[in-house]
Amino acid sequence: MKERIKKIIQRVSIKPKYIRAAVVALIAAAIAATAYWEYMRMPHAVEMALRMQLVEAAEQYLGCMESDGSHVQIIDLYNSHLPRPRGYKVTETDSWCAVFVSAAAIETGMTEILPPECSCEQQIYLFQALGRWEERDTYIPQTGDVIYYDWSVEKSFGDCTGWADHVGIVVDTFCPFIKVIEGNYSDSVKYRYLLCNDLEIRGYGLPDFNGHIR
Predict the structure, then answer these.
(1) Alpha-carbon distance 173 to 176, whole Å?
(2) I want to staple 148 with a disulfide (CB 3.0 to 4.6 A). Which of 16, 18, 166, 202 is the partner?
(3) For the chain, domain boundaries
(4) Nearest to residue 52, comparing CAs of 147, 146, 168, 171?
(5) How far is 86 from 63, CA to CA, in rounded Å?
């Protein structure tokens, strides 16, 4: 079999310079295709402005914490939005990470694309109902995406499909790192930095900013 392959190669007798040219052309085509794909998935100006608007609404609460009661303004904003999700009025002692994300949506008038909820799991269900839930390990998040975590996941490779314990808003992605703003992070509003495809990432809710524009 090896001799037959050698004979075929000899008959074809492609010159090395043509092989190199073909390889270079293939590499160039791959680079061009990748660049085009990244360009097409990049948010355009109006969409990016909306994404930043959501992030900036969240960032105004940086430093708010339970210890001095400054987090209460976030809870009050959430409770002011009627009808309240599932009719529940959040108290000052409740977990408020999802409340924080919802408050940013309420303040920016984006509740139709980022449904308010005080429960991470319930908010995931709402994103799923909108067809805007993403949990592929290969997904690279964008500014304004909503990120969910499962702290109890075993430290092993594979899809994280457990119960969502915490949530935040993606500020930016600097591959391989993600910058996130979160409420109720050590009882305060602060940034978190983590790796893309961290094992504790449950998935992402993807507000339809383009739909909000229309």
Answers:
(1) 8
(2) 202
(3) 49-213
(4) 171
(5) 29
CATH topology of domain 49-213: endopeptidase fold (from Nostoc punctiforme) (3.90.1720)
Rg (CA), the chain: 23
Identify which of 34, 39, 204, 79 has the alpha carbon closest to the alpha carbon of residue 133.
Answer: 204
For residues 152 and 163, give the distance between their C-alpha atoms in angstroms, rounded to a whole number.
8
Residue 5, pLDDT above cutoff 70: no
Q: Which residue's entry shows tokens 């990244």?
A: 38
Task: Considering only residues 30 and 176, tell me which one the structure prediction assigns the higher pLDDT.
Answer: 176
Closest-CA residue to 182 (of 81, 102, 89, 109): 102
By DSSP bridging, strand 146-149 and strand 177-185 are unpaired
* pLDDT tens per residue, range 68-101: 999 999 999 999 999 999 999 999 999 999 999 9
Note whether 171 and 181 are within 8 A (CB).
Answer: yes
Task: Label residues 186-204 b or e (16+ Cβ within 10 Å = b).
Answer: eebbbebebebbebbbbbb
Residue in this structure with the two tokens 């805007």, named with its chain if needed:
132
Spatial separation of the C-alpha atoms in residues 204 and 49, rounded to whole Å: 20
Are the C-beta atoms of residues 168 and 125 closer than 8 Å to each other?
A: no
